[in-house]
Every structure is written in structure tokens, then in C-alpha cells.
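Hi D.,

Good news: the full-assembly prediction came through. Inputs first.
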Amino acid sequence: MAILFASMSGITAQSKSVSSVVKLNINNIQPIKKGDKITGYYVFYKADKVKGGDYSYKLIIYDENVEKVAKKRIIASSSLLLLEAQYNGELLCFKLYDKKEKKSKLIFYNDKAEKIYTKSYEVSKMERKMILMREQQGGSSSAPSLVPIEEKGFLDVTTVKNEKAGYQIKFYPNDKTQKGWKYASKKTSPLLEFATVMEANKNIIVCLVGAKKKMMSQNASYNVVTLDANTGKELYKIKASSPKYEESILNSYYDEGKKELTLFGNYFRKGSNVIKDNSLGIVITTVNAEGKKIGQKYNSWSKDIAKYLGPSKRGKISEIGFIFFHQFVRKADGTFYGIGESYRKTVSGAATAGKILALAAIAAGGTGSNNESSFQITVRDFYIFEFDQDKNITGVKTIEKSVSRVGLPKGAGYYGPQILAQIVKAQGGFDFSYLKTLNEGKTFAVFYQNYEKIKGEKNKSVCGVISHTDGEYLIDKIDLPTEATFTKVLPAQDGNVLFMEYYRKDKKLKMEFKKMNY
Amino acid sequence: MLISLIVKCSRSFFCFSFVLLSASLFAQSGYEYQPSQQDESKLADSKNKLDLWQKEQYKEISGKDYKEFHKERHEHLVNKIETGYYIYDDFFYVRLNKILQKIIASNPNYTNLDNTEILVERSVVPNAACYGNGIMVFNLGLISRLQNDDQLAFVISHELSHQILNHVDGSVKNKIDYLDSKEYKNKIKSIKNLEYNNNTVYESFLLDLSLKSSGRTRQKEREADSLAIVLLQNTNYKLNESLNLLAILDISDEPKYADTIDYKTQFSADSYEFQDAWLLKRNGLAVQQEYDQELIDSLKTHPDCDLRISLLEKNFKLPPLQKHEIESVFKEVTIHSDFELIHSDLLDGRYGRVIENGFVLQNYYPDNDFLTAAIGISLAEIYFAQKNHSLRQFVPLPDDDYNMNYHRILLMINNIRLSDLKKVTLAYYNKNEGIKSTSHDEQNEHLAYASYLYLKLKNSELLEKTKTDYLTLYPQGFFINKLKTNK
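Then the structure:
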């Protein structure tokens, strides 16, 4: 029993340290999800050059404790990206994109990590642009294009070439002997159409479908389309408007017992542009199994919501700015909560100074170009909107946090609030990271990252969680380490987060789980 | 209460019954546990001897890497000695070193063994190791599973054999020499110059090196087994106990006690409702770990116990194995090991293990104050660790690979909210009034620390006074550092 005298790689109760990591793209380490649950992680990287000009890539699959369960080798061109990974309780699906071949590929693995089947397809020009944009954003702030349906299969949502650009939702079953299905926008549609899957379960799929004339158009119409998960046939379509108002749809919740769909969104004056104009408040719509609206609750900013914002803000919604709703959630007791983050357009001091310098340069005979807008977005506090089982607003909780600022590209200062929010989201400018339900649905927890400025102390980055249980809020924060070359916080199982720190000089990657208090 | 664990074996004439009788003798009478007291003079002697040996040997060796290895090994051991990882007491340390000296004295042909020494480590892992510089480490986790001094003697002889045969230093020297060799450097160069598959070929080369190394290590283990019997033949230790020892090692992955802990019953209280969801396992990635059994077997550093047993039987014509119970003189050794392991886990912050093993031992020693205090301390420390986000330094995430009792307590710690954990901890203290008391004598240090933590949970005004009392009563106490750094 001679001792193995190798130096331990710093393994403590739940931290792992990997040495000799020469080069690391931290975005190649991502979680594998099943709904809002984290079931594992993957690491994807280019390993070797192989004969014929191709490369071999390594895909390493880890369980929820970051224990390696499988290692896969994939041969492809020199520019393969792994876009997403999802787990549906039976199969794992990885979605990859080969930039050189201009093809996407889905690989399905079973619970023994054996490849079950693969699907490859050519990708439209618009889809290529979307993928590259997603890659630049680190993949985290876009809506997933790969959606698991529990123990049934996966949906792949892509942009396709029609008269203009359209969308396609394709279903791939777990059982490869079964036939999948496809639901798509009309090829002859004169509009640019796009779809996002809001909900997907064994019976029904709920999609938000938008249409507009051009890519940069600031006017769009929206519908909610529900599909039969078994056949892909359209069950019903609901227009996002009512006789009295225009509406936008932000989120949904499907009650499988009652077979009712609840839609959350904003409502606007009739004839308004839902992308450009200010909303009047929050609308919650209930739809029955036949697609008929059986209830609508309108909660106005100025009257219904203002009274919960506290005396200093009563009637002064304009002081808050706009609210971007990240998600709505239903708790086990039937109450609903909308998680919003406030933002407003402000003048950018730096951009203005730059402009002044540019003008001065022009006066002196130079070019004086400046690509920044004079405006910026200031992101402020969280607002959690509370609704009872009947969808009446019952309160608004304000959670104050440090202000952060997001620069805007030139010309963007004149965009409407909805588009501005999308720009901020694409740049990772909001602090919201993700939401989870815990404690058998009795708790929801909002995870966020923020840069805190404390008087008399050094500024610090924090990872925080706002949780709600039994009518009470709890806020918990952990300081993020700052000595590392870069850090990343990944969601983890239950109330945990996974801190990743990379120290370039030491070539060391450290991973540690931390349990947040909720 | 008789607990027997019948081991499944592939050999028709070998059937081993691992019987734990200690419970039947001690369940009624209780066990008065006092932690092993460190003999500072023995510790100092050990460290001085090590330093001296290191100084002498360092002069003799050459090569930068080899010197580095020597230095690192020495620093590693000294650090562990100084931080209390090893027990220097009359119970374990003296017993094992007496056996060692007896074996050495019975084998005068083997010289240069003056600096050999056994250190007893506070580790639950059922293992022992030879460091190659005369130091052999014996884990408490192994001692707690043995039945008699004969089995101890075999393990000691085995490790001594590694020392005599220069297995450790020889192996390290060979590895270093190979890494410095032209052969290795040329190989690396040729891999680097490949047009394709550099990393794949390199990984394959590394794997090949590991396989060869493992093969050599397994051969060394067989040699050590063999020489161990030769050494023991010159003593009056029973040779066939080596077979029992190997059979014990074969099942050492299983927990020592087969009891199942009912955490719901243990933690139920009137002040709150125990939630079944706390013990619920969330479904994660149900992907089976890929493994190549052949590769795993090839990478093993030790031959399978079955093979080791059959080799010894064949080569030494050992008398057939006979069933027996733990010898009465050894019973206290194993019981004391069980308690000492809980104490060691407590000192080292392995609070999940303390709770698990504390409840198991409470089945046999129901009124044992130390066990009650250890569980209370662990619950409180887990609460404070979670409050400060340092839980993972002490309690790992749940994993199916752990035994059921341990896995379930980890599930509970992972699932429970902080506010509920406080309720559970306070209820445990209220159920066991003795650990709340602030009146203690010198013998009840664990109770004193448990009561301090209780007051800390309650944010009591008496906290500072209790802290001062503890520091006065236990100036060399086990929890001094924790009290001084605790906020």
C-alpha cells in the first residue's frame, strides 16, 4: 500500500481545481438544463487537427456535481460552435453549428451517453447572423432555440428563408423510429416572422409569434400560437390585442390540470406601437382549452400599481422609468409574481464629451467621427409585482441596488423602450441572471449579478439572490472574487451557484459550489 | 446486539464472517470516551527524528528533481505533524510502534531501520501507507475495522516491506530519471512534430505510461505481501490473520455499521414540521458514467484482494482461515477508534460525517454525552457555515456514490432552508438539555463548546462570558482556534 505521492489538486469538500489550463474560453463551459433545473454541465473545446483539414473536438459531459460522466469526440471543420445543450429526462441533445459548412447539427445521446442519432441541416442566412450574434453575446442572454419536452423529444426553433425571413419549429422525438413534425410560417408571407417557444410540455406548446415588415422596423404585431405537442397541429391562435387596447405578450404559464393558459404582458392605447410607445400597465389574460379568452385583468401604472410604489413614488411612475419584465412565475399557492428591472434613457456624459471633442476636431479640420449615441441606459432597481390567484395586483416590492449604465449605438437613442430593453439585454446590461422555483414551488428565487458601490469601501462584484417564501422576501449576497483573470457564475442545482475562476498566470481553473440562502 | 456481515466470496472453502461483538458488551454499559491526548514530547521527538533523517539523506542525494521530491515530502509530513493530523498517544501510537519494534527486533538481518516509525492519522479511509523515508502512516479508519494485533502486525509488516525493498524512493527515482531521459524527450518531440492528432497521441502515450506504472506498482504490492509473511514468520503473530485482513479490506468500501438512520424521527420536534422534501433527491442528469472496466482494472495500484489471498495461501501454504470474533483485548481499540474518528471529523469540519456516524453509534451508546454534543456542534457549525456561504468547505453536495446514510444527511443539508436549519438545530438542543448547560468541568470540553454554540444561535448575552469560561477551563482546548476566529 505505497502512498501515491502526487500533489493533490486542491480538492476540498466541494471545489475542484484544474491545472495546466493553457487557454480557456470560459463561454465553452455551460450548464445542461431541464426546464429551469440544472442537470449537468458541458465543456467543449477544439482538441486536435486531424487528417484532411478537419479538427477533432472534445465534448465532456459532467453531472450536476461537476463529476465527469462522458467524453465525446466530434470531427468537424475548423470552426465548430456548440450552441446549446438540453436534457429532457431521457435524452441529451447538443446543438452545434459549423461556420464553414454553414450547417447546424443536433446530436442526441441516451442515458449511457451513447449516440442515438444525429440530424444535420443547412442554415439560412438570417439564422447564421442570429447564431453569430449569439456567439458574441456568450450565448446567455438569448432565448433558447433548443427546447426540451419532457421524456418526449426536443423542439428546434430556427429562422428560415421565405419570401422574407420566417420561422420553423421542428420536433425531434426521443424515439428515432417515430416521426417528428414541423410547424412553420407561410413561405409566401410578405412579412418577416419570428417565433419564441414560451412553454412546452407533453401536450401543448405555446409560442409567441411576431411579424414585421422589415428587420429594423419599429412596428410589429404579435400572436400567441398553441400547438398540439403530439402532432404539431395548431390548436388556436390568439391575437395580442383586445377591442380596447393593443397588447404585448411577455410570458406565459400553462396550468396542466385546468388546461388553461395565462398570458402576461403590457397593454397600450389602441392604435399604439407596442415596440415604441409607453405602455399603460400590465395585462394578465386567461385562455381556456378552446383558445377563448375567459378573463383579462388590466393593472394600470398610474392607478393600480402606483399605490404600491410607496409615498415618494406615488403617481410618479415617470421617476422609475420603464420596467423590463424578465419573467413571470407562479407559486404553489396560485399567486403570481412578475420580476422586473427598471431602466431609463439618460444622457451619456462620456458620449457627449466625445461628441464635443469630435466637434472640436471637425472645427480644427479633422474628421471627428463618433459612433456612440449621446444617450445611454441607466439600469436601476428590481421591482417584483405581486398578484393574487385572481390576477389582481396586491403589491410591488422594490429591491434597491447599485446603478449600472449601458452605452447605446449611434441612433439608438431614438428607439422605443421595448427595443432599448432588447439592446440592453443583448449586451448583458441587466443584472438579472435567472429565476428558479424551489422548495416544491413554495419559493421563487431571482439570481442576479451586480457591481456594488459602497461608500468608504472598495467597489465589489456580487452574486445575489432575492427569494420569496411564505410572504417574506430574503436577500442574500456573495462577493465575487476579483483576483482571478476572469470569473463566471453558472446556475447550479437547487439554491446553489457554481463559481468559476480562471487564473491565466497560474493556468488554473477553479470551480466551487456555493449555496445561497433563500 | 450482534451484528454480522457475511461476505460474499468466490471461493467455496473461504467464507468470512465479520462480526462486531463490541455492541453486545458495551450497549448496556455505555462507553466513557475521552479524546486521545497528544503527548507533545513524543510529537517533538518524532519531528526531530524526521528533521535529522532529512538532513542526513539530503546530503547523499543528487539531482534537482529528486532533491525537490525529498524536500516536498519532508515539508508535507512536518506540516501534518504540526497541524495535528497525527495522534501521539498511548492508545494508538504506542501500541502500533511496539508491534513495529517487535517485528524489527525479530528480523535482525534487515538493518537500517532505526528511523522507522508509525504515525496514526486521523483519517476514516481504511488504508495505510509507506512514505519511503522510514515513516509509515496508519489510518484510524483501518484500525477501527480490525480484530486483533495479528492483523495490525501484517499491515505493519507490509508497509515495512515497502521500506526495506526501497519501493517508494526507487519508484520516484526511476520516474524522475525517465522524465530526464533522451528517450522521453525524443518521444515528446516526435509527438509535437506530428502533423495530425498531436493531443490524441500524447494522451495515449500518457495513458500507456500510467498503465505500465500501475503494473509495476501492483507487482510491488505482491512483493510487499510476500516479504511481510517472511518477516512475521520470525515472530509469534499468526500468519493466517493476513488472509482475514485482506478479506476485511475487500469489503472496506461498505460502511462499518449496517444501521439505517431514520433522520425524520431523529429530527422531528413539536416546534416545527419536518418536511419530507428535505430528504428528496432532485433528478439530475441520469447519464451513467462511462467506464472501461478493463482500463480501470489495469490502472489499479493494488491487485484484487482475492488474488492477494490466493497468492499467499499458495506460496506460504498458510493454514486455512478460521472464523473468529474480535478479540476481547482489541475491542476497546476498535471502539475507541470509532469515537476518535468522530472527534477527528469534528475537528476537521466534516460535519456531515459526524452527524451520520454520531447517530449510528448512538444506537449502541444511547446516553453518550460526547455523541450528543458532537451532533449538536455539527448542526450548529453547518448553520453558521451556510449563513456565511462557506458550507461547501465542510459539507459536499449529495452524491449517489456515498452510502445511504451519508447521502441522505447531505440531501437534507442541501435542501433545507437556512431558517429551517436553525429550527432543526435548536430543537435538537432542546431535546438534549445536557448540551445546553453552561456548567462544565474539565472532562466535558465537547459539551462546553456545544453550549457555547447554542448561545451563539440564540444571540444570548451570556455568549462572551461562556467564551471566556471555555478559554479559561480549556487553555489547550480542541476548539480554541475556532473560538478565537469566530465572529
